[in-house]
Specification:
With 238 residues, the protein is mostly helical. It is elongated.
Length: 238
């Protein structure tokens, strides 16, 4: 069973995430190693005609060594917590608060990578860590999670409304919403937990409430959008 972790994000929504397993992380590491190996092989072929002491050889492999050391940092920075291997394994690095890891946090976790490689210390620490963190993660406050987990809420905005369903908002309010609005709402919230952009959720909920003239301030942004979709389906069922 995959270890789980509950995060209460900035929208005050409780999210359950699954930590990436050791096997998934190891396979991602192997894939990234193959990528780096392929680049190294290509460079070797490119300078094959040069003499070992030629300046071009020294420059090329100095650049490669430097790039290899920074590969993980730059990939995770550019692709929001993922390298090629992590993307293939559908895992990513995030901060333990549930937000994207910052540039500084990604730099810290990768600078300490060299210590993780000593006698397999990184794997050992992951095994004994409650949050499956290696030394770099512990230092940076990051965790590695799966990205293909489903959104887990008490109700789904996409299920058919029940026969005894009671709408949250008045019909007049919902009639101010059109099908295009509903399609946009679904596009924003119908995605994996770790892929939801909570800032967009908040902004969209504010816009929808203004358009429908909804004055309810008790519901959280995500709940507003879910209820709008279900109420729209309810009122248009006929």
């Amino acid at each position: 069973m995959d270890p789980k972790f509950n995060i209460n994000n900035s929208q005050n929504v409780n999210i359950e995430v699954n930590f990436a397993g050791v096997g998934e992380r190891l396979l991602a590491l192997i894939i990234d190693g193959l990528v780096l190996g392929g680049i190294g092989m290509a460079l070797s072929i490119a300078v094959a005609t040069a003499q070992p002491g030629d300046t071009i050889v020294i420059i090329v492999f100095s650049i490669y060594t430097f790039a290899a050391m920074l590969y993980y940092f730059f990939m995770e920075w550019l692709f929001k917590g993922q390298t090629i291997g992590k993307k293939y394994q559908k895992i990513k690095v995030i901060h333990k608060s549930g937000t994207d890891a910052s540039v500084f946090q990604l730099l810290i976790r990768n600078l300490i990578r060299v210590f993780d490689s000593i006698y397999g210390l990184g794997l050992l620490v992951i095994f004994f860590s409650k949050k499956s963190q290696r030394l770099g993660d512990l230092a940076a406050g990051t965790i590695v999670v799966k990205t293909h987990q489903n959104i887990k809420f008490n109700e789904t905005a996409f299920a058919e409304t029940e026969e005894n369903y009671s709408p949250t908002f008045d019909k007049l309010e919902i009639l101010r919403i059109d099908e295009k609005d509903i399609e946009i709402i679904k596009h924003v919230i119908e995605r994996d937990t770790m892929e939801i952009n909570w800032k967009i959720v908040g902004a969209l909920a504010t816009k929808i409430k203004a358009k429908a003239q909804i004055n309810n301030n008790e519901l959280k942004s995500l709940e507003v959008l879910k209820c709008v979709v279900k109420d729209f389906q309810y009122y248009h069922a006929g």
